[in-house]
Amino acid sequence: MPTNSFRVKVWLALFAEKGKSGFQFVPGSHLEDIPYIGEKRGLIIRPRLLVEAKNLALVPFAASAGDMIVFNDRLLHGGLVGGEKTRISLEFTMIVPHRP
């Protein structure tokens, strides 16, 4: 990641069962320093939390088709698995340069 930039992520629901599948996150986690280490999975280094997942207050993003959430790297988030049908979503990341 370039030092003069920051990352913005977007998750867009194309199909999700509201509150049962899609995206989940920990509100306010972007403001906290939650301990983690980098762990190589395949060709990518991904974070592994050093806290128990059961101690996190994950909430579903109750999305319908067309709803999106915009967030940064610091927000703890993940896929919400459940419901009876396969979720379909579009995700992308933008690298944005800091303005002087």
Topology, element by element:
Blueprint (H helix, E strand, L loop, with lengths): L4 E11 L6 E4 L10 E6 L2 E6 L9 E3 L6 E4 L5 E4 L7 E10 L3
Antiparallel strand pairs: 1-6, 1-8, 2-5, 2-7, 3-4
Spans of 5+ residues with little confidence (pLDDT < 50)? none
Global structural class? mainly beta
What's the name of the CATH homologous superfamily?
A: q2cbj1_9rhob like domain
User: Within the CATH hierarchy, at the fold level, what is the topology?
Assistant: Jelly Rolls
State the share of residues found in helices, binned by percent: under 10%
Strand order of the largest sheet: 6-1-8
H/I helix tally: 0
**Oligomeric status of the shown chains?**
single chain
- What composes the largest sheet? 3 strands, antiparallel
Tell me the CATH architecture.
Sandwich
**Strands, total number:** 8
Mean of residue pLDDT values? 91
The level 1 CATH classification is Mainly Beta
Q: How does the overall form come out from the CA principal axes?
A: globular
